[in-house]
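seq as requested:
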Amino acid sequence: MKAVELSQEIQRDIARMQPQVVELMRALCAIPAPSHHEERRAAFVQSWLNQRGIPSSSDGAKNVYFSFGLDAFEEIVVVMAHMDTVFPDTDPMPMREEDGKLYCPGVGDNTTNLAAMLSMAAYLKDRTPCCGVLFVANSCEEGLGNLKGCKAIMSAFGSRVKAFLALDGGTQHVCARAVGSSRYRITAHTRGGHSFADFGQRNAIAVLAELTCALYRQPLPAHGRSITTYNVGVMSGGTSVNAIAQEAQMLYEYRSDDAACLKAMRTQMQEILEAHQASDARLTLEVLGERPCAIEGDCAKQADLEDACCDAIERYVGVRPAISSGSTDCNVPLSMGIASACFGVYTGEGAHTREEWVQLSSIENGMKAAMSVLLNWFA
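struct tokens:
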């Protein structure tokens, strides 16, 4: 596998399609798509594909997928760009263009890459595939979406997948290392009472505060060059300033790019929770989401895919990207030992903030880099 050198004709075609790509970005940005609520954006994507003569399907996970050569070849490649954004808004979010930048929450992550993938797939539809190529506009990549869309695709097609490319993020990095995670809601239950008359009764908020301190004192497991983290992100509960809290909750996660470290963190969490259980303070645990780490697959195939992505970006964007670790749709195929990589087609800033923007002039070269990789699977 290699970074395919694009002909001058293909490069001109990519340049000519930029106004249509930006138009598609604007149309997609105008359709809110929180994780688990991508229906409207999925319907738009299917309509857009049908207008261009590309038959598509959807599944119970709200993925939209379409393929070239899927029935002619046993081995397939999956190319994926997620539809959902990190924002919970169900009304259209503000959008503006200024100084060559398009501003809108979610415009980069992942609307630009979704628009680019759809545009490139439409361009490639008349080419002959060298293997089955499955394009997916997938759901539930962000946050507590827990990679539901990707998991559904890999459950259906995983035994046939020889390589996996996610279009997500920008051109600065190629993500090819999976950071797994486990996320929980921990709830403390106590008798509570009046802040004066029942002073001395256990307070659920205080119980969680003590638990948080214990979690933050835990040692971090290490294995090779692994990186492991933890975080208490939200704490809530209680009734009033003059009531001893009967119930309080917190959201807790730990992450690692090493499966053994994830297992060690789970063991430590269970031991800490058990140590803080008491007759007058009960703790319960609810799993909110889990993302897997990678397992060792074919190292040569993985290196070939990484090199092709990096070479393509270096050739057409002008800077060689770093190989990074992250939590992306690639986590699922990497956990199955399938060669996988993730990069995007734009330069911008503010991902996961309401000030997010994309430099429109950067998309052309980013799409050239992506096309350079895609053409490995087309004649």
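The radius of gyration is 23 Å.
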